[in-house]
Write a structure and sequence with these properties.
There is one protein chain. By secondary structure, the chain is an all-alpha fold. It has ten helices and no strands.
Amino acid sequence: SFAGLYLGSLALGVTLVSLRGSKVDILHLLFGSILAVDTDAALFVAGVCAFTLLMLAIFYRGLVTEAFDTAWLQVNSRWLPALLHGLFLALLVLNLVAGFQVLGTLMAVGLMMLPAVAARCWARTLHGLLLFAGISGVFCAWFGLSLSWAASLPAGPSIVLTASALFLFSVLCGSRSRLRALF
């Protein structure tokens, strides 16, 4: 389940910090410090982003099939479902660990989930969902940083607050929102 994967990723992040011998404050581990990112962390996040986009470009059809029709994939191939599922989980954990570097554990999960769920309330196709989620993630990061600077707020929580506001707006007003369909 996602909760088990999240707890495992959190344990991995704590282990990585403890093995390195860093004197990172636990609040920094949980909430991050996006404005204090050093060059090494920025290069690590950029590398993870490039690797993830490359893997998505190469295995796009397989990952989509694995996500939406696992039974068909298992019938038509013996080794491919396990490989694709492992790739998906590896990419997820790798991106969570990269997010831990910049945003902290709590903020990384919020920023990973909120734009995707908001996009689900608007988009009708998978391509539209991916495009909307990507653009809204970039917008939330930019607007959250601008809000942080203008109102003297912490940057990480401001970004996630912006993504939460987009999520709430999408759930209430989205053209494909099930909550909107009730009214």
